[in-house]
Amino acid sequence: MHKAGFVNIIGNPNVGKSTLMNALVGERLSIITSKAQTTRHRIMGIVSDEDYQIVYSDTPGILKPNYKMQESMMKFVQGAIRDADVILFVTDTVEHGDRSADFVEKVRLSGIPTIVVINKIDLTQQEPLVALVDKWQEKLPNAVIVPASALNKFNIEGLFSLIIEKLPEGEAFYSKDTLTDKSLRFFASEIIREKVFLNYDKEIPYSVEITIDEYTEEPTIDKIHATIYVSRNSQKGIIIGHKGAMLKKVGTAAREDMEKFLDKKVFLQLHVKVNDDWRNSDRQLKRFGYEE
Q1: What is the pTM of this model?
Q2: CA distance linking residue 12 with residue 6, whole number of Å
Q3: The domain containing residue 276 runs over which residues?
């Protein structure tokens, strides 16, 4: 018997969805920072064996859209509820409020097999954790509640086994050696964007988009030319920094991560350009891959 299906990961920002996906896939496919809006697209990670194929899909964090880019991000989340064979709804032990109430209700009404993962259990005690499990069981009575710590790999094997159990029978969607549906260009841009999130404060990371203008693969080195787009001219100077110091710092960190990811040498050249208010431009959002 062969099992295969789409396991879609949804939840609020900052609950560790990307960390969980990376733990389940075993590769660093989704960028991870402490800031919201880090994941902007659906990123697939594929795990195959003789008896199963799991196609994980990490979606943007649930939020109330303030501009067109965020509206497009939420379309990815809506789609994830519609086309899942199994839903992984990720929460954690520290988030407050109920920003995802509408999505929780859609999950409840969907009839799709659902696993609620309570992440970051290393940050709580037994009694409040039991209360959280009861709370989520009341909200989603048909779901299986799984406490876990993606960062510490606690209960990941148990979660993995449960996912396989809930997969429908079927043939594989992708060849066995396929790891993701995204290109090397995509991951190069994600790595650069992660470094922007880690090195700049306030609005800067949320105003940035990356394009890979040229990607040349050679036997011993990959040569990458990329552009960092910002929304305003004042942001360009901040990205570049005094005498180019900040841009050099971002480029060096990105190149080092790319070399680990690709297991080969990388030449990376970065440019910075202004693209006025790209987050509210349908044409620019389509160019950057937000419109399906």
Answers
A1: 0.69
A2: 20
A3: 184-287
